[in-house]
Design brief:
With 331 residues, the chain is mainly α. Among the domains are: 3-72, Multidrug-efflux Transporter Regulator, Chain: A, Domain 2 (Orthogonal Bundle); 231-331. The protein is built from 19 helices and two strands. It has helices at 3-10, 14-23, 41-54, 60-68, 74-104, 110-123, 128-136, 143-152, 156-168, 174-180, 186-197, 202-211, 217-229, 236-244, 249-259, 263-278, 284-294, 300-309, 315-330; strands spanning 30-31, 37-38. Strands 1-2 form a two-stranded antiparallel ribbon. A hairpin with a 5-residue loop joins strand 1 and strand 2 (37-38). This is DNA-binding transcriptional MerR regulator. InterPro entries: ARM-like, ARM-type_fold, DNA-bd_dom_put_sf, MerR-type_HTH_dom, MerR_fam, PBS_lyase_HEAT. GO terms for molecular function: DNA binding; DNA-binding transcription factor activity.
Length: 331
Amino acid sequence: MLIGDVARRSGVSARMLRHYESLGLVRPSGRTGAGYREYSGEDIRRIFHIESLRSLGLSLREVGCALDDPGFKPSELVDDLVRRTRERIAAETELLTRLRRIGAAEPAGWEDVLQIVALLQALGSESAGKRQRAALSSAEVPVEALVEAALSETDPNVAGALRWALAQTGDGGSALLAEGLGSPTAEVRERAVQAIAEIPGGEATALLRDALTNSDAAVRRCAALALGARGVADAVPTLIDMIAEEANGADAADALSALASDPAVADRIATGLADRLASGAIGSSARRRLAEALADVPGVTASRALADLSQDEDRAVALTATYILKLRDAR
């Protein structure tokens, strides 16, 4: 079969067939009387083998080894192809993500595009200073990029700058940060709730309320402190637990004190603290902290709980409760 017929039947151009021949991949078995290349059935089968291997991503050099090296091991080549394909997919995915972020920023011209690209590169820099400067230029950085950076940042100064930047976007990053609350990695969950805690607005508050039921205690506690600062009474049970468990109890007591300015919430706080004390399974230092928390909670329920604590077996707890009662009586 002549080269033109082979090209038509195989879909491989005559020029490529000549290239294959120059590389020694396939040589026509014969020549016509006029000197034209003539391919045998075996030659054509080899051409199809070459094309099949090229479709897997092999270079022409690798194709030649696969066909002619008797010691060639297909399994090793397939493993290498899998690795290279994964690397290529990762690179293409990264490029796609970057392009989407640039598009989301709606650049007006190429100068804007170049500025956004520079900021995105700075966010991924190994230099903490460069990452922090990029975060502080948040007006130009796509929200999605800020969220990704905030969830992965380990430097506390850069993390703070990223949370500040996200807070400036309003609720723009809340939904994306919410996905971080379900991360299998504890550090990511904590970074997500810390970032949400600094975002103003109702959507962030709703996410913090949901976080009160998170399986991660650190997430629940951070959410409770943030909600307490926002005056949300849903945080009361978690704040009481924090005091009883001596987990950032001082901040939790301050949050309860702020919430107690609302009479309706104050009664709820007093009841919760009294019930926790009545459970009996609380250490002396936690009882003292609960007594201190009751100091700023008005009402009869709080006074009764303090009166009970004034008889506590632990002298420090009893003295603390007695002192607080005297202060309340003097008001």
